[in-house]
Amino acid sequence: MPVTNKDILHWLQRSTQVLHENNAFLTQLDSAIGDADHGSNMDRGFSAVITKISGMQEADIGTLLKTVGTTLVSTVGGASGPLYGTAFLRAGMATAGKQHLEGAEIVAMFEAAVEGIKARGKAQAGEKTMLDAFIPALEAGKQAQLEQVPVTELLQRMAGSAESGMKATIDLLATKGRASYLGERSIGHQDPGATSSWLILQALADTVAS
Ligand code: ADP
Ligand code: MG
Ligand code: MG
């Protein structure tokens, strides 16, 4: 079963709810190694997204995701606004005109998003950022696609790898973003952006599973 534009709408709604519920948690993580605003940034951005897309029931997936990207860029600010904004814009370009996505198209969508984050933030794997959730998720998605597993399982594997990657950020030294100002003191804390990335990927797996 492919992922439909309705699934994408439901994913965005679920993400909004999950990010709202985790506002305090994400802010707590950001208070340890940043400026204590990641929860409110994501909550504000996605509640604006939900308002924007509420009338877009018939829109294709690319149009939906591009709308998410422009909304996040204009409402979130900080580091994560342009980074998530670019991720969704690139994901939207990769899915332009599509009403549904098969496994290979889902992987291509995430590949475009990851390339966008890398280009925008000049970061790579292992720098204690959202990429440390996204890159393992993308690798898992590629592997699942090689094995031709159903889309539900592909998305579950991606979310599981994002979660492991998120947990692995605890031991990493931050070399990008505000957390890098702390140097060695950034070690021992989970990255807030990797955490929101996992929440968003888990929301997609849960949406398509149910
Ligand atoms: P700010 O740091 O401007 O307050 P947020 O708190 O909303 O923005 O987001 C912080 C998160 O952004 C970090 O936890 C990290 O995951 C992510 N981040 C910061 N810089 C980069 C970068 N150059 N590349 C990828 N992700 C980054
Ligand atoms: Mg912050
Ligand atoms: Mg900030």
From TrEMBL:
Record's keyword terms, sorted: Kinase, Transferase
GO biological process, one term: glycerol catabolic process
MF term (GO), any: glycerone kinase activity
Domain DhaL, first and last residues per copy: 6-206
TM ranges: none
InterPro entries: DhaK_L_YcgS, DhaL_dom, DhaL_dom_sf, Dihydroxyacetone_Kinase
Gene Ontology terms: cellular component: cytosol
Pfam families: Dak2 (PF02734)
UniProt xrefs under PANTHER family: TRIOKINASE/FMN CYCLASE, TRIOKINASE_FMN CYCLASE
Record-linked NCBIfam families: dha_L_ycgS
Protein name, UniProt field: Dihydroxyacetone kinase subunit L
Organism annotation: Dictyobacter vulcani
Highest classification ranks of the organism: Bacteria, Bacillati, Chloroflexota, Ktedonobacteria, Ktedonobacterales
